[in-house]
Amino acid sequence: MSDEDDILLEITPQVLLRAYACGIFPMAETADDPSVFWVEPDMRGILPLPDFHIPKSLKKTMRNTPMRVFMDRNFPAVIEACSQTTNTRKETWINSRIKSLYCELHEMGFANSVEVYDGHELVGGLYGVRLGRAFFGESMFSRKTDASKIALAHLVAQMKKAGFILLDTQFTTPHLERFGVMEIPKNEYQYLLEEALIGDSHFDLAGYQLSDGGAMSDSCLQSFNQMS
């Protein structure tokens, strides 16, 4: 058995949780690569919840969309969709080992998904890890315009409602910067992480299933006005 095989066998959901508590997370080089490696960026992407910004165009879409949003309705389908390549994403870092580990975390109650449906079709969403009062966003996907953005808006609304204080996006992108994501040094991130690991927050999953997409998103937008 190779050293690489030993590393794969040693990674368990419990090891993952300890890694997140230390500020590190796993990735794979490609979806076909069976190995994983640990990442601890010198500059960390976070989304300060009080500064979350929803572009006007997205607000309009959310108020008029028929798309519905659910949490944890089909976590495996979300991570599978995030692992697929697209015309704009030629490679992904989510391999079969990562999918298996995060599905185990979900079963244990430490990983959640936000899902956007058009009718019965899953058209967008995101998933991540919940630990203490922190949520570590892992990946998102969109098969319909603005679907992943709608998922992010609903995630932030639910995080604020539940008392979370840290949304870790790991890295920044121009797409995420539109919503207020910023980079901070590793030592500053560690300070925020330590604070977020004190206490515990939980999503209200049972109460997050509405049938009308527009009404749900309107309620989501109103919650930002109430909490600002």
Describe this structure in words.
- The protein is α+β, with helices and mostly antiparallel strands.
- The chain has one domain (3-227): Aminopeptidase.
- The chain contains 9 helices and 9 strands.
- The protein has helices at 3-10, 13-22, 56-64, 75-82, 96-108, 147-162, 174-177, 186-196, 213-227, and strands at 25-27, 37-39, 43-46, 68-71, 111-118, 121-131, 134-142, 166-170, 182-185.
- Strands 4-5-6-7-8-3-9 form a 7-stranded mixed sheet, with helices on both faces.
- Strand 7, helix 6 and strand 8 (166-170) form a beta-alpha-beta unit.
- Helix 3 packs across helix 9 (213-227).
- Residues 1-9 have low confidence and may be disordered.
Report helical residue fraction.
40-55%
Mean pLDDT: 88
CATH-defined superfamily: Leucyl/phenylalanyl-tRNA-protein transferase, C-terminal domain
- Give the percentage of residues in beta strands: 15-25%
The coarse silhouette is globular
Provide the spatial order of strands within the biggest beta sheet. Answer: 4-5-6-7-8-3-9
Using DSSP, what is the number of strands? 9
N-end to C-end Cα span: 55 Å
